[in-house]
Amino acid sequence: RRIIALQRAIADLPVPVVCRLDGPVRAGGLGLVASADVGVCRDDVTFALTEVRLGLAAAVISIPLRARLSPRAASDWFLTGRSFGAPEAREQGLVTHVVPADSMDAAVGRVLDDLRAGARQGLVEAKRLLSADLVAAFDEHGDEMARLSGLLFHSAVARERMAAALRR
Fold first, then answer.
1. Which entry of 25, 78, 93, 166 is 20 to 30 Å from 99 by CA?
2. What are phi and psi for residue 107, nearest 5 degrees?
3. Residue 47: CB partners within 8 Å, gap ≥ 6?
4. What is the pTM of this model?
């Protein structure tokens, strides 16, 4: 429930949220990325929804991910748990900008400059329009996804798979 609340808070903030990605993003981290308004990502960053490999489902993060991703990308990433790179993440709508590591500061600076050029009133209303469906989805499905996640995390299959992963 806390992860749902955090993602909802990011989506519901009245001002844009920019996510800077300088390293690998796994599991729940993808939900935070998808909850943000703009994602600036190094070109060598990798991503993976590893939950399925542990007998889990990406339940609590499915709400913002399904809002951002194409249905085919969601199916691929949720069901396989495979790793994918920054260009694929951009192509499928998870991140906005992909740049070389040595260009990150400049790229984030440009995004922030562009946002600062907007009038606060315009930014607030544009964000409200863009995030209304996502915030409503958190309100409608958040409790259900939190329950599902709890059930899966406490299952015998997940406990066995997580213990095995920790032994490696």
1. 78
2. -65, -45
3. 24, 25, 26, 30, 77, 83, 84, 85, 86, 89, 94
4. 0.94
